[in-house]
């Protein structure tokens, strides 16, 4: 069942990844603070919670380079929920360690207990989940178990039969590890159960969940391992070309992402099945989905795999219209947002408009002295999502502080504000915009400056770690934000978010 069109009314919301939620562990999760954040959003008059991809990350923690485009990050699973279920002992916190491996080991122990003790109703529910998600779950479970057996190495470095996805080699490798395969599947069942409960809670509070779809996938993923025929890799996982973006005003060498590109001819032969399967998972999780690097559906920046930077690439056409038309046929509603930032051509803009997809405007990009800059509020249109900044930007307060005096003067003249007011003048400007949707990073709502950035593109260290804590949330913050939201007609009409069906049963939660 699809929901009421989230773009039909003026709305606003907050960008915050679940890992940035407060809590006792190394990163946030789906525990009580996630529910408390939804309550904060509702009290502040917000009706959208935007986040980054929820997939299982590699060691660097980037949610844009995951082990699977379908599987959820098991570090987001609430251990509280497992205690509530009776699958973990209640005194677990007395022996807890702030360590990701401890959390994963504890989750595995709880899932073993669950599989040994669950009632018939829950077991049948799990079996329905496994059957319904078979199109990705089998390959994912085998992939992560074999990866563990291979000491965590990338699949391109596995023994030949395994890296070539030979059935006999795979079955021989996992023989005796059937319980581990089942555990990996049950962990995903737990993830999706917890997410469904959180989503129902969000809908009950009038909150849409806004997800993110990276256009490319990690080369070291279950997707590429099991479906290499649709990627630019050979049977051994080696490729000659990879993805990136060319040099621009922010990066002299461009960005060399290293992801394999798509073999669009092979995807056409399958009627874009892998892509529609991917969207099916995301539409089951989220009410709105942003396509990261949308311009890659019109043309991709193709770089030789041997290059040290992205300078040596070239634009290669992609069949965006064919793909989006297929998605439109598969899904009656298509609540997609095009991340149309960077080098955007008329062809990219036309592709977005052809399928009536909202684009993005970022106010931090607006003040270059050009009155025609399309990020300036007076150049916005209603079919847009306006941001003060994104997860790839510095916080607005830090951005403003580090700009030149000339730029600061432009900002203050345009917004009619003073230095000490920032970041709220930019928040207010986004609220005023004719763009139907406005989104603010939590850092900007908290007024945080330097040192609170989520990601610095082109770097590998120190990203994806930012978190807030509830003492940072001033007592009057929700009221201030709600008043501003109401002033500019972004308070969502009551009852616009319909409840989902009971796909999986919820457990009774402790009061927040």
Secondary-structure element string: EHEHHHHHHHEHEEHHEEEHEHEEHHHEHH
Shape: globular
Largest sheet: 8 strands, parallel
Determine the number of helices (DSSP H or I, runs of at least 4 residues): 18
Helical residue percent band: 25-40%
Strand order of the largest sheet: 9-6-3-2-1-12-11-10
Structural class: alpha/beta
Runs in which pLDDT lies below 50 for 5 or more consecutive residues are 499-512
According to DSSP, the number of beta strands is: 12
Average pLDDT level = 92
- C-alpha-based Rg, rounded: 23 Å
Strand content range: 5-15%
Query: What is the terminal-to-terminal distance?
Result: 29 Å
What is the strand and helix layout of this fold?
Blueprint (H helix, E strand, L loop, with lengths): L10 E5 L16 H12 L4 E3 L28 H7 L14 H18 L2 H13 L1 H16 L10 H4 L3 H8 L3 H27 L3 E7 L7 H5 L14 E5 L9 E6 L3 H6 L3 H13 L2 E5 L6 E6 L9 E4 L2 H11 L5 E3 L7 H9 L4 E4 L21 E4 L8 H7 L2 H11 L8 H9 L4 E5 H4 L31 H11 L25
Parallel strand pairs: 1-2, 1-12, 2-3, 3-6, 6-9, 10-11, 11-12
Antiparallel strand pairs: 4-5, 4-7, 7-8
Helix pairs in contact: 3-8, 4-5, 5-8
